[in-house]
Specification:
The complex is a heterodimer. Chain A is an alpha+beta fold. Chain A has 4 helices and 9 strands. Helices cover 24% and strands 31% of the residues of chain A. In chain A, strands 1, 4, 5, 6, 7, 8 and 9 form a 7-stranded mixed sheet that branches. In chain B, strands 1, 2, 3, 4, 5, 6 and 7 form a 7-stranded mixed sheet that branches. Classes of the chains: A alpha+beta, B alpha+beta. At the A-B interface, strand 1 and strand 2 of A face strand 1 of B.
Chain lengths: 197, 183
């Protein structure tokens, strides 16, 4: 059984930017679970798959429920992301085993109604580290308006033998997304830029 | 009142001291980032008019939100005002240390005691601890606790973070003797 010590959910709603109401008042949420590193104290473990298969699906389910709960249903999820922050006694590979396998990603994707690959960040650090979690569109990953991030920080986690596993979601694009997209971009090449300068 | 953003944090503790906390211990915080209503005005002698205008609206906004985030009866509570670097701590204190603000929370929490508070001036991204005490008896030791939060991009120099914190219980595994046993 995985020992979950703490679950923290952070929700952000931006109402105005530079004093003006935003065009997309979306809600952004990150759910973070502090768990015991399943491989703590075992040195370099060659095969991480068994523990990942045991731990990751439950975590993904629990965190997805927090996300859809905070956004008011799976239909309100338009972007998603994931992250792992490994305590100083572990390997980044431990966090990777928990979030970069189908046991986590496929469950998160299914429960949030997505099809895209899920963007991520991972890091090793002391308790109280700030981790920036990236998000992008859940079905159209290249949708530029939905590139966004949310920061997570838990004062007392991860301890050296812990991992913070995070899932994140947003109900919409950036508050004032207005930089166009691949379909509207002018053609840009290095040689043309050099000729223009 | 010029509101920029709202951040909500819900914290569930499932284990403490290597033992299960059952049921898990929940704390919720709601933070509103607003423009400092006295920004750019120099030293304002009478803060009363803007306190009367803005403090009740902040209380109305935040009290139901923190109750909703906690989703359980409120047993302990606290409040916060974090003033951006161009303001006075007095500005934050003005907005939270008035019944016009706190009574909204007291009503939602069925509370009767004074709200413990943190007030400070700091740059954006500062970490701050909100103290909480029991909602009807501030001497109940099991409910003395604090919650640590942070908004990455606030307060700007001309902003104030106004926050409310609520807990559904005292500390996990609280086991200190009551104050009365020492009297």
């Amino acid at each position: 059984m995985t020992l979950v010590r703490r679950v923290v959910t952070v929700t952000e709603e931006v109402v105005t930017e530079l004093g003006t109401p935003v065009s997309h008042p979306a809600r952004r949420v990150a759910a973070a679970a502090v768990i015991a590193n399943p491989w703590a104290g075992q040195g370099v473990v060659a095969d991480l798959s068994a523990a990942a298969a045991r731990v990751a699906p439950t975590l993904a389910t629990r965190l997805s429920e927090r996300l859809t709960g905070a956004l008011g249903g799976v239909g309100n999820v338009t972007a998603f992301g994931k992250a792992a922050l490994v305590g100083l006694g572990g390997e980044i590979e431990h966090g990777a085993a928990l979030i970069h396998t189908p046991y986590f990603g496929n469950v998160l994707r299914e429960l949030t109604g997505g099809t895209s690959i899920i963007v991520f960040s991972d890091e090793r650090g002391p308790a109280g580290s700030v981790l920036t979690v990236p998000l992008w569109h859940k079905t159209e990953a290249a949708t530029r308006s939905h590139y966004q991030t949310i920061q997570v920080r838990i004062p007392d986690a991860p301890a050296d033998d812990e991992i913070v596993v995070i899932a994140a979601a947003s109900s919409g694009p950036r508050p004032n997304a207005r930089i166009g997209d691949r379909t509207t971009d002018p053609r840009v090449t290095l040689s043309e830029l050099e000729n223009a300068s | 009142m010029k509101l920029r953003k709202i951040t909500t944090v819900v914290d569930d503790v499932h284990r403490e001291g290597d033992r299960a906390v059952n049921p898990s211990a929940r704390t919720a915080v709601v933070l509103a980032v607003v423009e400092n209503p006295w920004a750019g005005q120099g030293f304002v002698t009478d803060l009363g008019p803007l306190i009367d205008e803005i403090a009740p609206r902040l209380g109305e906004l935040l009290a139901p939100k923190v109750a909703e985030a906690l989703d359980a009866p409120i047993e302990a509570y606290g409040k916060a005002a974090i003033v951006g670097l161009d303001g006075e701590i007095e500005h934050g204190s003005g907005l939270i240390h008035t019944l016009k603000f706190g009574d909204h929370f007291r009503k939602v929490a069925a509370a009767s005691t004074l709200l413990p508070a943190v007030e400070k001036r700091a740059p954006a991204g500062t970490v701050f601890d909100i103290p909480l005490k029991h909602v009807t008896d501030a001497t109940i030791r099991s409910h003395h606790q604090s919650v640590e939060v942070r908004v990455p991009d606030a307060p700007r120099p001309d902003e104030i973070i106004i926050g409310l914190a609520a807990a559904a219980q005292g500390r996990p595994h609280a086991r200190l003797a009551a104050l009365s046993t020492e009297q």
